[in-house]
Design goal:
This protein is of the alpha+beta class and 306 residues long. 20% of the residues lie in helices and 32% in strands. The strands form five sheets. Strands 11, 12, 13, 14, 15, 19 and 20 form a seven-stranded mixed sheet that branches. Strands 2-3-9-4-5 form a five-stranded mixed sheet, covered by helices on one side. Helix 1 packs across helix 5 and helix 5 packs parallel to helix 6. The longest helix is centred in the C-terminal third of the chain and has 14 residues.
Length: 306
């Protein structure tokens, strides 16, 4: 069976833990779903109007997380790490049941999601995948920050630049080919913050569930987490994870070249809104078997499953 066919998880997968911003304990279950379902969130703590679609047009908040909301005001927040895991693993369809408003932060990365999904395996259908192919260069700017996406051949490339005055974080850059590179460092990279920003963030009612168990905290020239960093570019790699997760709110895998400097959830969302505002900017293609070379298959992932 072709790896260019739509995939879902092999069996229901359960996760539980504290949510980063609300501080509430949340349970989620990633369930298999039929082809062409896409990714859906279902608030099982609510009896009606409880389906929330993770689409860029439904994003209602981008302050330190990505929050989606349906027409009835039902929300699911901090979806980016889970969405990044699903995108990176090539999961096209899943029904995610959640009993609270915010996805659990787990260890602050996508690592635990990825490990359990790979261990469980995948269910591949007979239905071909669909991809979004970018046809024109589209850019969004915010002062000295920018993000753009432009046409490329057969991959999704993300070139991300991070700039901080802090000496530990500093200026970091990394480029990944999402469908070809080993994404382990991306999946394993945790969210982070500066120690001096924590009080202000808490005053805004956020990070009630934050701790050194689920975030890297940098104070002056020191990392407060005893274990240190998981990889040399963990800060920018986490931003790339966020970017991948936010790009999945397009609904499909994407073929394009993304370049971003000092971006985040807001920038990526605004870029997607700009792309899909004009149908001349993109095309949606159904990939028949043998239509596309192996570049759309993450070779390193396949090796890890074998």
């Amino acid at each position: 069976m072709s790896y260019l066919n739509q995939k879902t998880v092999n069996s229901p997968l359960k996760f539980s833990g504290i949510s980063l911003h609300s501080g509430k304990f949340t349970n989620i279950t990633i369930n298999p779903a039929e082809p062409n379902t896409g990714i859906l969130f279902k608030r099982v703590d609510l009896k009606e109007n409880n389906i929330v679609v993770p689409n860029f047009a439904h994003v209602s908040n981008t302050s330190l997380n990505t929050t989606i909301e349906n027409n009835y005001g039902v929300k699911v927040s901090t979806i980016e790490h889970l969405m990044g895991a699903l995108f990176g693993l090539g999961i096209d369809n899943a029904l995610i049941e959640i009993d609270n408003e915010e996805v659990p932060i787990l260890d602050g990365s996508a690592k635990l999601y990825v490990e359990k999904i790979i261990l469980s395996g995948f269910k591949t259908s007979e239905v071909p995948i669909k991809i979004i192919k970018i046809l024109k260069k589209i850019e969004f700017k915010d002062k000295d920050r920018f993000i753009y996406i432009e046409p490329t051949t057969l991959n999704l490339n993300i070139n991300f630049e991070l700039r901080y005055n802090n000496k530990i974080i500093g200026n970091q850059k990394n480029t990944v080919k999402v469908y070809e590179d080993n994404l382990e460092d991306i999946f394993n990279s945790r969210t982070f913050c500066l120690f001096e920003d924590i009080e202000m963030i808490k005053k805004n009612g956020l990070v009630k569930g934050g701790s050194l168990e689920n975030a890297i905290v940098v104070k002056n020239e020191k990392i407060l987490n005893e274990e240190g960093l998981r990889n040399d570019k963990e800060f920018v790699n986490h931003k790339i994870l966020d970017c991948i997760g936010d790009l999945f709110t397009s609904g499909y895998r994407i073929i394009g070249n993304v370049v971003c400097s000092q971006g985040g959830h807001y920038m990526t969302n605004q870029l997607l809104r700009k792309v899909f505002k004009n149908k001349e900017n993109f095309s949606i293609i159904e990939i028949k078997q043998k239509n596309l070379p192996h570049t759309l298959i993450n070779k390193s992932l396949l090796k890890s499953i074998a």
